[in-house]
Automatic annotation (TrEMBL):
It holds the Pfam family FeS_assembly_P. This is SUF system Fe-S cluster assembly protein. InterPro entries: Fe-S_Maturation_MIP18, FSCA_dom_sf, MIP18-like, SUF_FeS_clus_asmbl-assoc. Residues 12-83 form the MIP18 family-like domain. Gene3D superfamilies: Fe-S cluster assembly (FSCA). Transmembrane segments: none annotated. It comes from Subsaximicrobium wynnwilliamsii.
Amino acid sequence: METKIDTNALGEKIVRILKTIYDPEIPVDIYELGLIYDVFVNEDYDVKILMTLTSPNCPVAESLPAEVEEKVRSLNDVKTAEVEITFDPPWTQELMSEEAKLELGML
């Protein structure tokens, strides 16, 4: 008997993992910073993450997406993980959560 994994529950696990990854220049995780635009999980447990960086010449442009892929792929239920970087729409401080703004003293 095959056990069916709830893709919503897997999505929540992925978000919890994303909240452990920090932008090295800002003491806030990448999820609360608003760098994650979307997380897609299909029935085969392939994960695609659409994310951005704070700027196109971000010093972690190479390492941050690789870290995201590696950490998401480490989840037992995830078969593959792919990160796609986009700058459309460009990241702005408006994308940050209230929590992130509070953490950075912007509220």
